[in-house]
Amino acid sequence: MLASHRTLFDSLYGHLLNPLAVVGSKDLQVCYANQALKGLFKTIDWTSPHISLAAMFEFDLGEAVNLELLERCSQQVEAFECINVSDTLRVFQVTPAQLKLDDDSPEYFVLQVQASSRSTAILPSSDSRLTYALTEACDGLWDWCIGTGEVFFSPKLDQMLGFDPEERSPCFESWAGLVHPDDINRVQDALGCHLRGDSESYDIEYRIYTKQGGMKQVRDRGRICRWDSEGNASRVIGMLSDITAYRELESELRETRDRFEDYALCGSDWFWETDQNLVIQDVSSQFTRQTGVGAEDIKGRNLLNLLRESEQTSAIDAVKDSLPIRNIRLAIGQQKYWIALSGRSMFDRSGVMCGYRGIGENIHDQVMLEKTVQAYKHNAEVMMDRAPAAIGMISEKGQFFYSNKAFLSLLRADTNNLSEKYRNEKQLSKPDKQVLQSDESMIFEMVMETLDGPQFYSVLKFRLNRADKNERLVVTIAMDITYTRQREVDQKKIEMVLDNIAEGILITDLDHKIVSANRSMQETTGYTLDELVGKTPSIFSSGRYDRGFYQELWNEVHQSGKWRGDIWNRCRNGSVMRQHVSIQAIMVDGQVQHYIGIYSTAFQSGIRRDSEMFAQQYDPLTSLPNRMLFQDRLHMACQRSRVRRHSVEITLVHVSNMTTLNDGYGHTVGDQVLKRVAFHLQDGLSLDDTVARYSSDEFVVIREKGLEISADELIRPVLDRPIVLGDGARVVPEYTVQSVRYPDQGANPHRLMRLLHNRE
């Protein structure tokens, strides 16, 4: 302490009659004592430069603990009592006051001391065991005389452990036997450390058993109060405090805190705190984990500056009256991450609002969903408004709700007129009432007379429930179908014309599938319209043309848009007729939409001419190409082989037991067998292959595609089928099959045929 301070204290307090001391606030060393105080404590050597407050009196129960004195002096403004046991037991009343001379000087306590009126009434003797402390203290006092081994336990201590006064032996062992076995070594080490002078006091927490077998958590504090002539500790006084309830409460608080932290880590919410100016001071770590935004992006920012203008007003009003903030939304970070904050105001000890504290929630997905819904709603409104169909809505109370432009145009009105009309009438039409009473939609047509003539409309009505107002709406959608109805009339006229034309007419789509056929086409071919729709014109194939013929036909149609010629077609009953066919592509806006074919039957003279040509090139029994046509096709196949560099397979099929069949069953049966063999060969091969009758009991096959599988493999399964005659008799022909390939086994078609016959 500065000398100037001591002089100042002496001038202030030296003449006072009341005992008074000035002590340092940090170490509780007596810096100044007036004469009245020195006369009150005559046993103290006031010439010593270091006099502690503990040397003057021992706090409450005789325990000289500077920390507790400091707490009493710094926290209490009212007087408190202390006990001095240096010679006689006396009680003093101490009134503290804080003293600060200037900014650079240390802080002091000014203590006014006077003898308590309770000293003689309560403490008539000077018992060294502190009768006052024993009867009035809340905790248990013990006094251990090390020399004799005797320990005094206060009634409060015995009562704490469930013993009657003086029930147990006053020795160290009776206390040590109650200490929990897991704690006794630790307790003895702490006590021995203090007795050896290694610690200023003895202070430890441990578990101790009660008389009833229960267990308490206690804090045991003590210190040496007397030494023998050799400087060894001879007497220790201590105080045992029951802290069981405190530790249990502490455990519950810790458990609650851990549970709270677990909830905070596992939950989707996080915590935030602001100062009185709504500047964000802190956010929990869950904030970054939930939002992906760093805490530094939000700390130090004013909450109001982060809010949208629409929410700033409500937040400011809440802050003015210190009201809770509820679910305010804001976007943070460069990516505009959406969060919601809710919290309540905090107040300091004087009742002044010092900030807000609350929880935050990640609502980014929710906001994005809301925006998506709003976008869909907006797009739906735009689509409805621009839709060609007239759309209108009225409520079940007859009030106008919505109409798009087409609806207003249909009724030749505007929104105000419609609203006024429905507001005045408030009457629902009969169809509207029916829709409200039923879950089914209603579709009907109506005709409206206009200056342009009658207009046809298809009307759809259905019920719609408004979830926001628990109200039902009647939705009306009207589509102008005048053009459709006119086209239907025109279509019927066209169908009437087509049905009365003598020529057969066939219409196909782009995939050559039949979509329509007139009555003449149905009567000529014997097929009904249902049988033709969805099929291709190949249903009329007579078998006299290979696939290449039809491919060339359609190639010409695709290239030039038309084709004309005569074709042999087969009717539903199996008969074959020659027809003159004209195919034309139907163009709309430069794009092919359909193909139309006109079929006219040839004149008799033409039929005779074609019959003569057919007789020259086809076998009359099997309708297969004869030897002449076969040779012509073989030469053409060889020419294509040379150009395209692929092989041609020629296969000879000989019915080896044909003579036996003719002799056994007759030539009529033999002819039936040859027809069935021809049919089986065609059935086993593709349309790209040529099957011809080479002689009376020989057939030949020309193949240019799929040669990885031989003709023998293809036709052998069908040739092995038994032939059932008209009377039920079964005939099993016998065959020999030989194949050669051009040009691998010969470059001349005639040599290849000789090679096949030589192999037999």
UniProtKB/TrEMBL annotation:
<dbReference type="Pfam" id="PF00989">
    <property type="entry name" value="PAS"/>
</dbReference>
<dbReference type="InterPro" id="IPR035965">
    <property type="entry name" value="PAS-like_dom_sf"/>
</dbReference>
<dbReference type="InterPro" id="IPR000160">
    <property type="entry name" value="GGDEF_dom"/>
</dbReference>
<dbReference type="Pfam" id="PF13426">
    <property type="entry name" value="PAS_9"/>
</dbReference>
<feature type="domain" description="PAC">
    <location>
        <begin position="202"/>
        <end position="255"/>
    </location>
</feature>
<dbReference type="InterPro" id="IPR013655">
    <property type="entry name" value="PAS_fold_3"/>
</dbReference>
<dbReference type="InterPro" id="IPR043128">
    <property type="entry name" value="Rev_trsase/Diguanyl_cyclase"/>
</dbReference>
<dbReference type="InterPro" id="IPR029787">
    <property type="entry name" value="Nucleotide_cyclase"/>
</dbReference>
<dbReference type="Pfam" id="PF08447">
    <property type="entry name" value="PAS_3"/>
</dbReference>
<dbReference type="Pfam" id="PF00990">
    <property type="entry name" value="GGDEF"/>
</dbReference>
<feature type="domain" description="PAS">
    <location>
        <begin position="490"/>
        <end position="536"/>
    </location>
</feature>
<dbReference type="InterPro" id="IPR001610">
    <property type="entry name" value="PAC"/>
</dbReference>
<feature type="domain" description="GGDEF">
    <location>
        <begin position="646"/>
        <end position="760"/>
    </location>
</feature>
<dbReference type="InterPro" id="IPR052155">
    <property type="entry name" value="Biofilm_reg_signaling"/>
</dbReference>
<protein>
    <submittedName>
        <fullName>PAS domain S-box protein</fullName>
    </submittedName>
</protein>
<dbReference type="InterPro" id="IPR000014">
    <property type="entry name" value="PAS"/>
</dbReference>
<dbReference type="InterPro" id="IPR013767">
    <property type="entry name" value="PAS_fold"/>
</dbReference>
<dbReference type="InterPro" id="IPR000700">
    <property type="entry name" value="PAS-assoc_C"/>
</dbReference>
